[in-house]
Automatic annotation (TrEMBL):
<dbReference type="InterPro" id="IPR029058">
    <property type="entry name" value="AB_hydrolase_fold"/>
</dbReference>
<dbReference type="Pfam" id="PF00975">
    <property type="entry name" value="Thioesterase"/>
</dbReference>
<dbReference type="InterPro" id="IPR001031">
    <property type="entry name" value="Thioesterase"/>
</dbReference>
<dbReference type="InterPro" id="IPR012223">
    <property type="entry name" value="TEII"/>
</dbReference>
<protein>
    <submittedName>
        <fullName>Thioesterase</fullName>
    </submittedName>
</protein>
<feature type="domain" description="Thioesterase">
    <location>
        <begin position="20"/>
        <end position="242"/>
    </location>
</feature>
<comment type="similarity">
    <text>Belongs to the thioesterase family.</text>
</comment>
Length: 247
C-alpha cells in the first residue's frame, strides 16, 4: 500500500495506463475500495480518496460542507490525473466526483475518460435523502443499521462509534443539504449505477442524462443502496467500469 497525499493506493502499479479514482459514500473511508484493487485489470491502478477524520487522517477535522471537501481533494487531485483516469463515486462519493468534474472543467484541466455515478440522484435534486443527521446519536446509529453499509460489529462498538459518529453525521448533513447551483452539460462519457432495491427511481436515475452532452449508460445490480458491498456482483461492476474507452 502507498499513500499519495489524500489518496490511498492499495496495489501500486507503476506500469498502469489508467488511474481509477474512487470516492466513498457518506461516513465511508478509502478501505471501502480495498477489495477492488486485486480484481482490476493489469493496466488500471486504483486510488481511493481518504476523507479527513478517518484512518491515517483521523486527527484532522471532518469536512463540514461540500466546499471543504473540494478544497481538500483539490490539493492532490492534479498529481494523480497526469495520465488517463476514471472517476467513480458511490452515493455522497458520486456528488464529490461530479463536483471534481465541474472544477476540472472550470480550470480547463484534462477531463476523465469516464465518470461513474453510483447510488445517487442527479446533482440538482432537492430533498435527496431522509433527514437523519440531526438525530440523537443512538437514534442516528439505529438509522444507519436500517440503511446498511456499515458492519454491525462497528455500529455496535460504543467506543468506536463515539469517534466515528461526528464525521458520519457531518457527511450525512452534507448529502441532505446538497443541491448543485446549475446544470452543467459536460462532455464526459458516463455511467450511472443503482441497486435494484434502492429507493432511487428509474426517472431519478435518468435525470443524470441532463448533466452530460452524451446520454449516460444506466445499469442496475441486485441489492439495495450499498449494492457495491455485494461480493457476488463486484466483478461485474468492475468490468463495466473498466471496459472501453479505458481498455
Amino acid at each position: 500500500m502507498s499513500v499519495n497525499g489524500r489518496f490511498v493506493c492499495y496495489k501500486p502499479n507503476a506500469t498502469a495506463k489508467v488511474n481509477l479514482i474512487c470516492f466513498p459514500f457518506a461516513g465511508g473511508s478509502a478501505s471501502v475500495f480495498y477489495p477492488w484493487a486485486a480484481r482490476l485489470p493489469a493496466h488500471i491502478q486504483l486510488l481511493a480518496y481518504q476523507p479527513p477524520g478517518r484512518a491515517q487522517r483521523m486527527a484532522e477535522p471532518a469536512c463540514m460542507n461540500i466546499q471543504d471537501y473540494m478544497d481538500d481533494i483539490w490539493q492532490d487531485i492534479k498529481s494523480i490525473t497526469d495520465k488517463p483516469f476514471i472517476l467513480f463515486g458511490h452515493s455522497m462519493g458520486a456528488l464529490l466526483a461530479y463536483e471534481v468534474i465541474k472544477k476540472l472543467d472550470a480550470h480547463k484541466i484534462c477531463m476523465p475518460v469516464k465518470a461513474v455515478f453510483s447510488a445517487a440522484k442527479s446533482p440538482w435534486k432537492n430533498n435527496r435523502a431522509k433527514l437523519i443527521s440531526h438525530l440523537r446519536d443512538n437514534d442516528f446509529i439505529n438509522e444507519l443499521k436500517i440503511k446498511g453499509g456499515f458492519p454491525e460489529q462497528i455500529l455496535n462498538n460504543k467506543e468506536l462509534m463515539e469517534l466515528c459518529t461526528p464525521y458520519i453525521k457531518s457527511d450525512y448533513s452534507i448529502v441532505e443539504d446538497y443541491c448543485s447551483e446549475k446544470k452543467y452539460k459536460l462532455s464526459v462519457s458516463s455511467i450511472v449505477l443503482s441497486g435494484m432495491d434502492d429507493e432511487i427511481s428509474d426517472n431519478e436515475l435518468a435525470e443524470w442524462g441532463d448533466v452530460f452532452s452524451q446520454v449516460p449508460e444506466i445499469h442496475s445490480f441486485p441489492g439495495g443502496h450499498f449494492f457495491i458491498n455485494n461480493d457476488n456482483v463486484l466483478d461485474d461492476i468492475i468490468s463495466l467500469i473498466t471496459k472501453q474507452p479505458c481498455e
